[in-house]
Each structure stands twice: as C-alpha cells, then as structure tokens.
C-alpha cells in the first residue's frame, strides 16, 4: 500500500468508515431507546442503572481475552461475526414487543450480549486500521474516525429519542439491527490481511500474551498512573450515565418518553467533540499529567452543577461540560498510552488498560442505582462523585504532578 496515496483516495478505508458510521448511527438510537424502554416498563432507577452496569461488565470480564485472541484470529471475521450477532440479538426486542412477550430480563440479556460483542469488535478494530492505511497516515485516519463517530453522537441520540417517542422505543431498535446487518455485509468484503502479532508467531500461549500486556502496564509509571486514576473517573461516569434518564424524569420533570431526553445524549456528544479540540491545545500549554489532573478536578465541580440543575437548559450545559472533562481524561490517557507502547503490545495493552480503567463503571452504575432508590438521585450522584474526587486528590501523589514529566517513545528493548 502506497504511503503517498491520499487518505480520501483509499477505497478500503472509505468502506471501512462507511461500515463503522452505519453501525454507530444505529447504536445511537439504541443508546436512548434501550434505557428509555426499560424505565418505561419498570419505573425503577436501580434497574435503569443496572443496564449501564451490564453494558460495561463485559469489558471487565472479557477485555483481557479479547485483546489476546484478536491478535491471533482473523480480524475481519471477528468484526463480521460480532456485527451479525448484534443484529440478531437486537431484532429480538421489536419482535418480542410485537408478540406481547417482551420482558425486563430479555432487555438486560440484550444489553449484555451486545456489549460483549462490542468488546471483541473493538479488540479486532485496533489491529484492522494499520492494515488499511499506511502507518504514516494513522493519525489522520484516527482523527477522521473520531470526527465521524462524534458527529453521529451529536445528531444520533436526538433522532433516536424522537424516533422512540413516535414509533416506540422497542420498534426504534429495529434501526440498529438493520445497521449492524449492513455493516457486516460491507466488512465481509474488505480485503483485510490476516496479520498475527509477534507473540502469536512465536507460538506463545494466550495466557503468556495477556501477562505480557499486564506487566508493561504495571511497570510503566505513566501508563500505570493514568490507568489507575481512570478507575475513579469510570466509577463516577458509570453512575452519571446510568442515571441520566432518571435525572431527566425525576429532577427535570420530563416524561419518560420525551424526545428531549435524546438531547442530553446529543449534548454529551458535543462535549466529547469539544474535548478532542481541547486536548491538543492543552497539550501545548500543560504538562501531560496536568491535563488529566485538570480534567478530574473540573469533572467533579461540573457533576455538582449537574446534580443542582432543576431546569432543562442549565442541565444541558452542565452535562455537556461534564462529558467534555470526562472525555478529556479518557482520550489523554489513550493518546499517551499509544505513544509509549511498543507496536507489538498495542492491541493487548490498549484493551487491557481500557478494561482496568473502565472497570469501575459497572460498580458506579450499580451503586448509583441502589443509592438513588434509597436516597434519591441527587444524593446518589453526589456520593458517587467521590470516585473522581478521590482520583483527583490521589493524582497529586503520582508522577502526573511533575511539571517536567514527558512522553517518551518506546525503545527497542521495551518492545
């Protein structure tokens, strides 16, 4: 593949992005429709938050395995199979609704299965992009991918909320089933090379591959610090995301089937987009660790503002800025991790670190739901905000506080 070919002239990359954009668009509908449907059926904050717990749990359970296997199996096959399974699983919701047999346990199972497929898809896609575009164009390709997903996250949830309000939340999920099926068709025709990692070529075991990734994270002080502090951030974000619909209904007085609920997801997407713009600017002005510390501290302050909002407009502003800081912490960690990790460890280190950092999300969502049932949603969120507050304070005991801290390229020995 020629490194001189403009990215826009790369037909394989364009088809890959079409497949991703189609599935992202459908998932934006489900992002709103599934918790809306569950809350409509149960009226329970705890069960609604449990949905977020179950969606985050597969990464915690299967992240290590998925990262290792994706370096050994056909990446294209993994992406196609997971897309087909997603389509079939999501289609069961409108079908069960049409026949009057839709149940709450089914919705929870759907959340678990689709989230599990996402873990393996993500693991495969980490290695797919470098086989589609030249290494020199990877930053440009990743930026294009992020831009497309963020734009969809802005418009998709609002449209999803409107569709769920008009057609019904269960029926709206048909859109996501169709988009996954279309994505599978496009991905199946991509000429992806079956590239195996160095560890697989030397016939190491899956367990050895996993341990190699874990050792790198444990020994690299910058990756270790960012990953561990990310746990507190994920605990709080799990509660905020899991209780978003509940806040809209119980504190802001919106109907549970209101299309305005989708606006909150859309504004969150806009906050994430602002974070992608803010990170390069902050990177030029702040040491790499200070960016994370700033994000953690501001995140807690904005969470307090979110819980104190009693009207739609201030709440929209608060949740948008909160998501900006939440995303800033996440993408700063991802960027630094990719810069310092040897090529041979990229897949395993990325999936493993994401699993560890996001491990607090199911706990945060579950505890937030229980606390909301017992003490109300505002108290629950303030308590769960201690997660990000603890990370902020603990960050000053790590190398992240150092003004002279720099990102170092991996050495041949490290690889």
TrEMBL record:
InterPro entries: MFS_dom, MFS_trans_sf, TM_effector. SUPFAM superfamilies: MFS general substrate transporter. Keywords: Cell membrane, Membrane, Transmembrane, Transmembrane helix, Transport. It is found in: Cell membrane. It holds the Pfam family MFS_3. Gene3D superfamilies: MFS general substrate transporter like domains (1.20.1250.20). The keyword Transmembrane helix applies. The chain crosses the membrane at residues 21-40, 46-66, 78-102, 108-133, 145-168, 180-201, 222-249, 261-281, 378-397. The keyword Secreted does not apply. Residues 12-403 form the Major facilitator superfamily (MFS) profile domain. It is a multi-pass membrane protein. Its main location: membrane. This is MFS transporter. It comes from Tenggerimyces flavus.
């Amino acid at each position: 593949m020629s490194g001189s070919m403009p990215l826009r002239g790369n037909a394989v990359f364009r088809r890959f992005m079409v497949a991703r954009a189609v599935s992202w668009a459908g998932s934006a509908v489900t992002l709103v429709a599934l918790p809306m449907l569950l809350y409509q059926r149960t009226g329970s904050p705890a069960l609604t938050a449990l949905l977020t717990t179950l969606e985050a749990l597969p990464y915690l359970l299967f992240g290590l395995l998925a990262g290792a296997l994706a370096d050994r199996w056909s990446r294209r096959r993994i992406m196609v199979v997971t897309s087909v399974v997603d389509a079939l699983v999501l289609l069961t919701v409108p079908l069960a609704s049409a026949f009057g047999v839709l149940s709450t346990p089914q919705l929870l199972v759907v959340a678990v299965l689709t989230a599990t497929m996402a873990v393996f898809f993500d693991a495969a896609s980490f290695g797919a992009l470098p086989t589609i575009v030249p290494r020199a164009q990877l930053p440009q390709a990743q930026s294009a991918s992020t831009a497309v997903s963020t734009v969809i996250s802005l418009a998709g949830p609002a449209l999803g909320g409107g569709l769920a309000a008009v057609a019904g939340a269960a029926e709206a999920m048909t859109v996501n089933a169709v988009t996954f099926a279309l994505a599978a068709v496009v991905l199946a025709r991509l000429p992806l090379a079956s590239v195996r990692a160095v560890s697989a070529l030397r016939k190491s075991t899956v367990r050895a591959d996993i341990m190699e990734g874990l050792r790198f994270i444990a020994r690299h002080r910058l990756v270790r610090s960012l990953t561990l502090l990310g746990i507190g951030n994920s605990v709080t974000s799990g509660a905020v995301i899991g209780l978003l619909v509940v806040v809209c209904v119980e504190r802001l007085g919106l109907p549970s089937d209101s299309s305005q609920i989708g606006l909150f997801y859309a504004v969150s997407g806009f906050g994430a987009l602002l974070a992608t713009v803010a990170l390069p600017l902050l990177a030029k002005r702040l040491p790499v660790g200070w960016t994370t510390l700033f994000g953690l501290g501001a995140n807690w302050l904005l969470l307090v503002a979110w819980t104190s909002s009693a009207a739609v407009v201030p709440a929209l502003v608060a949740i948008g800025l909160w998501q900006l800081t939440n995303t800033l912490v996440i993408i700063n960690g991802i960027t630094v991790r990719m810069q310092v990790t040897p090529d041979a460890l990229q897949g395993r280190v990325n999936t493993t670190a994401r699993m560890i950092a996001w491990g607090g999300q199911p706990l945060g969502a579950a505890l937030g739901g229980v606390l909301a049932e017992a003490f109300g949603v505002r108290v629950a969120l303030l308590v769960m905000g201690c997660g990000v507050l603890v990370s902020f304070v603990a960050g000053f005991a790590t190398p992240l506080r150092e003004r002279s801290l720099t990102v170092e390229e991996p050495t041949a020995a490290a690889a």
